[in-house]
Amino acid sequence: xxxxxxxxxxxxxxxxxxxxxxxxxxxxxxxxxxxxxxxxxxxxxxxxxxxxxxxxxxxxxxxxxxxxxxxxxxxxxxxxxxxxxxxxxxxxxxxxxxxxxxxxxxxxxxxxxxxxxxxxxxxxxxxxxxxxxxxxxxxxxxxxxxxxxxxxxxxxxxxxxxxxxxxxxxxxxxxxxxxxxxxxxxxxxxxxxxxxxxxxxxxxxxxxxxxxxxxxxxxxxxxxxxxxxxxxxxxxxxxxxxxxxxxxxxxxxxxxxxxxxxxxxxxxxxxxxxxxxxxxxxxxxxxxxxxxxxxxxxxxxxxxxxxxxxxxxxxxxxxxxxxxxxxxxxxxxxxxxxxxxxxxxxxxxxxxxxxxxxxxxxxxxxxxxxxxxxxxxxxxxxxxxxxxx
Length: 389
Known about the structure:
The chain is of the alpha+beta class. It has 3 domains: 4-114 and 370-386, Phosphorylase Kinase, domain 1 (2-Layer Sandwich), CATH 3.30.200.20; 119-323, Orthogonal Bundle (Transferase(Phosphotransferase), domain 1); 332-365, no CATH class. 40% of the residues lie in helices and 17% in strands. It has 13 helices and 13 strands. It has helices at 51-64, 92-98, 119-124, 131-150, 205-209, 216-231, 241-250, 258-261, 266-275, 286-290, 293-296, 316-348, 351-372, and strands spanning 4-8, 11-19, 23-30, 36-43, 74-80, 106-112, 153-154, 163-165, 174-176, 183-184, 304-305, 308-312, 379-383. The strands form 4 sheets. The chain has a 7-stranded antiparallel sheet. A hairpin with a 2-residue loop joins strand 11 (304-305) and strand 12. It is globular and about 65 Å long.
């Protein structure tokens, strides 16, 4: 790789922040500046054959990092380098002796640290929550989506879990995070992406149909997020993944229960309907969605509170109730499915499931190896051609 140099690592390992499919996330403090970042640590063995996912994420963030206040910033990228315990190995025997002392080889992506928590956690912690609050959040997020679309990027995994607040302050910026599934689109070639990816409840119909997809999938996801922000549950919730997929492909959803949506303006529902247009060519662009009356009007849209005619209805009681009920249902559903699966395994001795368990154990082992590497003791190959600061 060109323009690289091996140097001592400039970061100190911090506490664990989370774990994903292929990576763990830890705090990392820059030794000289004292600034703290969220560092995504990826075991290269675990990503073997999938290195393009990391390269793609870096390519996307190089294009948009620091360009918008509501998009998480990539500050640095490097990889740890194998170091022998001996300075030099004079023979093959020396090399074989040194091999057990090699440090794990990891990829590191250092992002701006968001400490304010996830979107819905913040909403549920509030004393009240109005339709105007939901509109303000959607407007801010959609403005950032429009920015990345203008830069030729499609995110492909917009959901509440990937919307984080920068700090715990009441006026903290909300940030779009996790660009691992994002892609750069070459507009001049009118390219479309293929393959199924994303989080099922937020995926657009064209992804499931595998007919090619692009930026409109992010607008669809914004429709699902808006529905969720107004009601506390998503529009295509079904009893099985198959039923959920069928509902999404058909655009089959309702504004129910009626008592929940009676507190939401028709303008807000119209915005959701526009975003959840099944045919992507008829779906508004992010820029067009920003011009919808619900977001663009100077006067907020809301349903008046009958007990307080001068003010809007508080959405928080119904939103929290629906959200908590759904969490309980999901936990029960997961438990039932797990019991059924265990019973099936006991009766059939499923070999494929055994292989899956072995794969899961391997993934966990790789993650644990990544977590054990002490950053400040490692040497790194720093990719200066990344050109981020």
